Task: structure prediction
Amino acid sequence: MSDSVTMEKLVSLCKRRGFIFQSSEIYGGLASAWDYGPLGSALKNRLQSFWLREMTQLHENIVGLDTAIMMHPRVWEASGHVENFTDPLVDCKNCKRRFRADQIPDENLKDKKCPECGGELTEPRNFNLMFKTHIGPLEDDGSIVFLRPETAQGIYVNFRNILQSTRQKIPFGIAQVGKAFRNEITTKNFIFRTCEFEQMEMQYFVHPSQDKKWFDYWKNERIQYYYKLGVRKNKLRFSQHGPDELAHYAKEAFDIQYEFPFGWQELEGIHNRTDYDLKRHTEFSNKDMSYLDEITKERYVPYIIETSAGLNRSLLMVLSDAYDEETVEGETRVVMRLHPRLAPVTAGVFPLVKKDGLAEKARVIAETLKEEFNIFYDQGGAIGRRYRRQDEIGTPFCVTIDYDTKDDDTVTLRYRDSMQQVRVNVGNLAQRIADEIKAYKRTGE
Ligand code: ATP
Result:
């Protein structure tokens, strides 16, 4: 499989076809904020549902949750974010640019030399990444709230509620998808790092003596998940956090990285957060966050294994992994090899020509398929061009209604990846598409 993707091609396709637009574009745009268009929002929703299905539907002991973005300010003291959620920043005294000290070359930091203009850099200063705002009409210290920098804390503070309302027994998990906000200084690479983003987090509560077992279990489950999404295996790898990279709460951590067009970067973090969070919330709220094992009568504070993935970052990964170009009959064919479960449009339905009753017949077929799949109907232009437009947005199937359809009730089913065409009876079409989605394997895997 060729690796023809570049960020430039991706950004341009995303805009042209309605996946992703710059936020507030008519006003010149807002740095690092993006809007998801008709295809992008559909793809994002599908990725989110795929994750939720994987986590909650396929695991009886994982329940869903959806918590508020604004929480009691004490939450962020307890979690350690007020104190520790900082990036070390350096400023250039000459060009006034600001950098994350851990993201510039070591020599520059040592020599205090700006990587852009060579000017003098300041000493690193810690800068808190949480966005602050006020609730109510008074802008005083008593009204401060933060926009959550991670969704995890909403899960921890509901630990007792979930235990009481669902009667789950340890080990069990809580999953949620939601927005998080970080005042990132260096935002670049399209939607990779932004100040507003969505996380898909699952917190798994375990007995402290079982932490290693469950950590390894989730590490394996999570990489398998990306294979299921149809992502190429050689583009994924683990990267372990060294002792000096571990977050303040973590005992062991691995990232799952993907090889983006701009290099290997984190996609998801898997952390053993120990009993840090529940103990801190016990201390700060004065509420008991321990768990009683009804069989052994042991009371303990569970350890937490966290899997934390970025939804927008996953979307960028899926798009860059899917992008492919090949030469067909002397022309470049751009094809998004998206997994059919994720593709925003599942099938294009086309009458070969508008006349002779073919359009009417095609409409009826499209209406029936719509009950189960996301369908795009198009009756204009050369059929080859209609196929290419669908290839470019990753539509895995196209259905063409031609003169034979009128005689024998068969249609052409055309596959995006192989461009192969087969005749299928109209009555079997929906089932055939459903079966193909289930059986899908990416070419070359
Ligand atoms: P980094 O070190 O790159 O700033 P992190 O290690 O702090 O990231 P986590 O706190 O582990 O990231 O967040 C879990 C996941 O949330 C990340 O793997 C990533 O997919 C996503 N994520 C974190 N920050 C951002 C961001 N600014 N924009 C988009 N996604 C993000």
Notes: Residues 333 and 388 are 7 Å apart (CA to CA). The mean pLDDT is 94. The pocket of adenosine-5'-triphosphate is lined by residues 150, 182, 184, 193-194, 197, 199, 266-269, 308-310, 312-313 (CB under 6 Å). The longest helix spans residues 38-57.
